[in-house]
Design brief:
The structure holds two protein chains of two kinds. Chain A has 24 helices and eight strands. By secondary structure, chain A is α/β, with parallel strands linked by helices. Chain A has four domains: 124 residues, DnaA, N-terminal domain (GMP Synthetase, Chain A, domain 3, 2-Layer Sandwich); 147 residues, P-loop containing nucleotide triphosphate hydrolases (Rossmann fold, 3-Layer(aba) Sandwich), CATH 3.40.50; 74 residues, Helicase, Ruva Protein, domain 3, CATH 1.10.8.60; 91 residues, Chromosomal Replication Initiator Protein Dnaa, Chain: A. The termini of chain A are far apart. Chain B is an alpha+beta fold. In chain B, the strands form three sheets. Chain B has a twelve-stranded antiparallel beta sheet. In chain B, a hairpin with a 3-residue loop joins strand 15 and strand 16. In chain B, helix 1 runs antiparallel to helix 2 and helix 5 runs antiparallel to helix 6. Chain B is elongated. The chains are: A alpha/beta, B alpha+beta.
Chain lengths: 482, 365
């Protein structure tokens, strides 16, 4: 390491000049690392490493001096580094190892800006002081996995979302202490994640030091599994239970995962006990999440539950107009209204439709007509309509699968070759449509609702016992939902 | 073009070059072998644009010329032919007629002008290397080459001609294999470069245990002349990381063990290392090495090996595959295992200039 002597000296000087916060964090992380690693490994790989501050790749970016250091740390010590960040500095992020010096792909602009402090490598990595705050915030948000565009201003409020919006802004401004936990549910593409991101963003604007934990339930489950595997559960727990606010997206994901639910329950209770704000989103109301422990359901419902409905016509038009302003495109009211009429269920798809129409009109410089729009959005519209699964479509799909005639679905005949497919169709109707047991029984040749219940149970059992049946049912569901 | 050739000779020649041809190429010409018939015989050449291989086959050429034919198909046909003698003629449209005994095949080729020429090595630096030295070095290092394409500089063997030594290094970030050999070359030829995996594989196929080979090096290509065969390869661009940084400078304990005994023990015991942890635990005691593996839902195995060891008692875990790879490639009777502690890499050495650094696995107790 003799040849790096010069670099090393510079290092120490700059470390001394830097804000003490970095020193603290890195000092703590280093401390933890030296505990985890052998003395030889620590001095060989981490002695001259340093924390890179304000890097867009995340809060846990470590700068090293050589390629080999990067390669060796990445393949062998990433777990230790992650744990050291979590335990030493409560930073939860994927560590990034980068090579400092000549080959660093850092923006050249910053070199110019930092030129006051001669050509010191470390200075180069520091962002310019005069950089607007929003840039730093945006970077921070991206690092946390939050889309900076998702704030309260960009959310179009309509009748469908007024209540949810109000509840969220109350939580964000810390007025709504009693709204804990805040449970936001609604179908895909209606803005759940948008509202939740807005809360996180608002909080960070008010208090940049706030410890905001923002993650999807899937991330939670994965990190939990990882922690179990590594046997460092206490690190995992500590990292969540010290949060100022915890926002968990798509909580339905933990359904059926018992240990994860258990762990989540304890985290959840610990946070509630310390009056830490929790925000959850889900694609359905809490009691409808299948395979979720009742105690979790009741916890979820203990605070405020808000629902996001599909937007009404006026709101859809407003959303489209806002997007048009944002993208600086111009379409006639007629076209906009038409798009809003075609796509009703999902804001994401609505935006997708607008993107398609706008980019087509931009690229072809043709005037948009209703017919043209219909043509462009044909597949989206078909999709939109086919989302409605009916008992008829289920019966037809099952008949196709088992080569039966539609009449068999409602006939009185009961050979196994007909009865079982009929039971599958009933079970699917129960699962995929909102019809009641009685209505389903009616549709299958005026059968009793008990027959439908029996069919559901029977199919459930068969699915468990018989992988072939499971495969067939999964295939049918896929076909129906396409 | 027209020639007569013995089936075995043709097949040997084709098999030497056919491995370079990938089964899914974008350019049809790259599935073909270039066949050049001259008075002295046939020259067969294939390439995938990164690596090219060329070899010769003896043949009685009655009409000189050249063409390209799909190599996989050609090999399959030649292999199945009933007679020992084959007559091949190619017309101006690159259609080849293959006659052998009672059978007759016609296959359609592509013009030789489409075939990408192998690089030119004028003014290149030249090195003469004993074939067995390079073959042995490649064998002892190539298993450690990284297959991770995101770290492309590690997808090859680092080859260094420095200070009168030829050094070969391969690493994948978990282990590193290195062979050092003295070699004579002009001091002005000191250099280093990275030979890609594919060229290494071809080299291992073509190298023999006796004779020399000629290595020629241009800016970004390397050429190996082995007898009448030639391998031309692009080099991996970029700087190989400083591998010396990985090698522990001081080790505390040294254990000496019979290579074969250790290999067999590890192989047996690893049958019960679980897929998840995939490790074997080595426990060092006085003149005894215990090798153990266990997986909670399957069972466990342990075995002891006689060794020469007088250091402190401790245990370390390694990936059994990574431990076996060098043991298999080496030919020495005994090997040394140098260690620091259970968290630091182990270093496997032989009496020759071979060295293998292996990271331990974490054992969760």
């Amino acid at each position: 390491m003799k040849n790096e002597h010069d670099g090393g000296q510079n290092q120490d000087e700059t470390n001394g000049n830097q804000a003490s916060s970095t020193d603290d964090v890195w000092g703590k992380v280093r401390g933890k690392l030296s505990e985890y690693l052998s003395a030889d490994a620590f001095s060989r790989w981490f002695k001259n490493a340093e924390l890179v501050e304000d890097d867009e790749r995340g809060p846990a970016v470590i700068g090293v001096k050589s390629d080999m250091q990067q390669i060796w740390i990445e393949t062998n010590y990433l777990d230790e580094v992650r744990a050291a960040f979590a335990e030493g500095a409560s930073i939860h992020a994927q560590p990034v190892i980068t090579v400092l010096g000549g080959a660093v792909p850092q923006p050249v602009k910053q070199v110019a800006r930092g030129s006051v402090s001669d050509s010191d490598q470390v200075r180069v990595l520091k962002p310019g002081e005069e950089a607007p705050k929003t840039v730093a915030l945006e970077r921070k948000l991206k690092r946390m996995g939050i889309n900076p565009e998702f704030d309260f201003d960009s959310f179009v409020v309509g009748d469908n979302s007024q209540f949810a919006h109000a509840a969220c802004s109350a939580v964000a401004s810390r007025e709504g202490r009693s709204f804990n936990p805040l449970f936001i549910h609604g179908r895909a593409g209606l803005g759940k994640t948008h509202l939740m991101s807005a809360i996180a963003q608002q909080l960070l604007i008010i208090d940049p030091k706030a410890k905001v934990v923002f993650l999807t339930a899937e991330q939670f489950a994965n990190e939990f599994i990882e922690a179990v595997r590594k046997g460092n559960l206490d690190v995992f727990r500590k990292s969540y239970r010290t949060a100022d606010i915890m926002l968990v997206d798509d909580i339905q994901f933990i359904a059926g995962k018992e240990r994860t639910q258990d762990e989540f329950f304890h985290t959840f209770s610990a946070l509630l006990n310390t009056q830490t704000q929790l925000v959850l989103t889900c694609d359905r109301p809490a009691p409808e999440i299948q395979q979720l422990e009742p105690r979790l359901i009741s916890r979820f419902e203990s605070g405020l539950t808000v629902e996001l409905q599909p937007p009404g016509f006026e709101t859809r038009v407003a959303i489209l107009q806002r997007k048009m302003d944002q993208w600086n495109v111009d379409l006639t009211d007629e076209v906009i209204h038409h798009i809003a009429n075609l796509i009703q269920s999902n804001v994401r798809r609505l935006e997708g439709a607008l993107t398609r129409v706008a980019s087509f009109s931009f690229l072809s410089s043709e005037t948009m007509t209703i017919a043209k729009v219909d043509d462009l959005l044909r597949d989206l519209v078909r999709d939109e309509n086919s989302r409605q699964i009916t008992v008829d479509s289920i019966q037809k799909a099952v008949c196709d699968q088992y080569d039966l005639s539609l009449a068999d679905m409602s006939s009185r005949r009961r050979p196994a070759s007909i009865a079982f497919p009929r039971q599958i169709a009933m079970a699917l109707s129960r699962q995929l449509t909102s019809h009641s047991l009685v209505e389903i029984g009616e549709a299958f040749g005026k059968r009793d609702h008990g027959t439908v219940i029996h069919a559901c149970k029977r199919v459930e059992q068969e699915i468990e016992m018989n992988p072939e049946v499971k495969a067939v049912v999964e295939k049918l569901i896929a076909v129906l939902q396409r | 073009m027209k020639f007569q050739i013995a089936k075995e000779a043709f097949l040997d020649g084709l098999q030497q070059v056919q491995h370079v041809v990938s089964s899914r190429t974008t350019l049809p010409i790259l599935s073909n072998v270039l066949i050049e018939a001259t008075e002295s015989g046939l020259r067969l050449t294939t390439t995938d644009l990164d690596v090219g291989v060329s070899g010769t086959a003896e043949a009685e050429v009655s009409k000189t010329g050249s063409t390209t034919l799909p190599v996989k198909r050609l090999v399959n046909i030649i292999r199945e032919l009933p007679a020992a003698e084959i007559e091949i003629s190619v017309d101006a449209k690159n259609v080849a007629s293959i006659k052998s005994g009672p059978s007759f095949f016609k296959i359609i080729g592509l013009p030789d002008t489409e075939f990408p020429p192998l690089a030119d090595f004028q003014d290149a630096k030249e090195y003469t290397i004993p074939q067995n030295l390079l073959l042995d070095g490649l064998k002892k290092t190539s298993y450690a080459i990284s297959t991770d394409e995101t770290r492309y500089v590690l997808n090859g063997i680092f080859t260094s001609f420095k200070e009168g030594k030829l050094t070969l290094v391969a690493t994948d970030g978990r282990r590193l294999a290195m062979v050092d050999n003295e070699l004579e070359f002009p001091a002005s030829h000191e250099t280093d470069f990275i030979i890609p995996t594919k060229a290494v594989q071809e080299l291992q196929r073509l190298l023999n245990s006796d004779g020399d080979l000629l290595l020629r090096l241009s800016d970004n290509q390397v050429c190996f002349e082995i007898g009448s065969s030639i391998i031309v390869s692009k080099l991996i661009e970029g700087n190989y990381p400083n591998y010396r940084q990985v090698i522990p400078s001081e080790t505390k304990e040294r254990l000496t063990v019979s290579r074969e005994a250790l290999l067999e023990t590890v192989r047996r015991v690893s049958l019960l290392s679980s897929e998840k942890s995939n490790s074997v635990k080595l426990t060092f005691g006085a003149n005894e090495l215990g090798v153990a593996a266990n997986s909670p839902d399957i069972g466990e195995a342990n075995e002891s090996v006689e060794v020469k060891y007088s250091g402190k008692e401790f245990a370390i875990a390694f990936n059994p595959d990574f431990l076996q790879a060098p043991l298999r490639a080496l030919g020495d009777e005994n090997i040394h295992l140098d260690l620091i502690d259970e968290m630091s890499p182990g270093v496997l050495r032989t009496e020759d200039a071979f060295l293998y650094v292996l990271m331990p696995m974490r054992v969760t107790s």
